[in-house]
Amino acid sequence: MKHFVYILISYFLLMACGPQERVSKEVFDKVNSSMEAKRLSEAQIIQEAMVWGDSISTEAQQQLMSNLHQAVEESGFTGALDFCSVNAASITKAVSDRYKISIRRTSFRARNQNNLPNEPESQILEAYQYNAENGIVSEPNIQKINNGDTLLYTKAIIIPSEFCLNCHGNPETQIDKAVLEKVDSLYPGDLARDFEVGDLRGMWSLKIPKKAVVNRL
Ligand code: HEC
Predict the structure, then answer these.
(1) Relative to the CA of 65, which ligand 1 atom is closest?
(2) N or C: which end of the chain has fewer CB within 10 A?
(3) In terms of DSSP H, where are the helices of the chain?
(4) pLDDT tens by residue, 104-146
(5) Which atom of ligand 1 sits closest to the CA of residue 105?
(6) Domain ranges of the chain
(7) CB neighbours of 94 closer than 8 A, spacing ≥ 6?
(8) Cα–Cα distances in Å, from 52 out to 8, 127, 155?
(9) Residue nearest atom 16 of ligand 1, based on CA coordinates
(10) pTM of this prediction?
(11) CATH architecture, range 39-216
(12) In what order do the strands lie in the sheet with 141-145?
């Protein structure tokens, strides 16, 4: 009889342990995965956002350039004015639809006044400007915004060649009269002239939600 009671008690103990063990494993897994997410957020998320930001901005830049060159070939600089907008690049729409990443170019000397910098962008642009004036190469940058929920990726845009000066150079000597007239009528507040090769033109600015980076990893 004593034996039987022992067996009965151990049976109940086992029964009690079984489900409990399963629950605690679930809790353990949950804690573990959130810890993993936390660990990722500090180092890997930023690293990944940097790689991702680099590749998106490079692709957008390439698309923009190939659209622009093609438009210039087909219809000259006047006809190509519509093709210097970021929205002309399909990558912009693809990443914003799919990952809710916003992508734009911003500049203190903007042609399109919607491209003037906002508060966090201004500070970074100032640093890029300082670097450009002092011969220091600016590296891409990642900064936390929105209480850390979003990462702001930025990359300096330097005027690479005289090609750009057909629309952003000296209005008397480098920008064709017809181009200038169209620029003036489309962009009354235009500040994007008188640039030289090597000048800081502006920067790429990408808002990347941290969640999108985590989901991607
Ligand atoms: C055919 C004329 C043309 C050429 C060539 C051109 N751009 Fe532009 N650029 C424009 C126009 C027009 C805008 C305004 C686009 C918009 O409405 O967003 C612009 C806007 C920009 C902007 C966004 C900030 C702002 O001023 O609104 C940057 C950065 C820029 N251009 C850089 C360049 C660089 C670098 C080159 C050379 C590789 C270049 N552009 C060549 C016409 C041109």
Answers:
(1) 38
(2) N
(3) 2-42, 44-79, 90-99, 119-133, 165-168, 177-186, 210-216
(4) 999 999 999 999 999 999 999 999 999 999 999 999 999 999 9
(5) 23
(6) 39-216
(7) none
(8) 60, 22, 12
(9) 85
(10) 0.84
(11) 2-Layer Sandwich (3.30)
(12) 102-106, 200-209, 150-158, 141-145
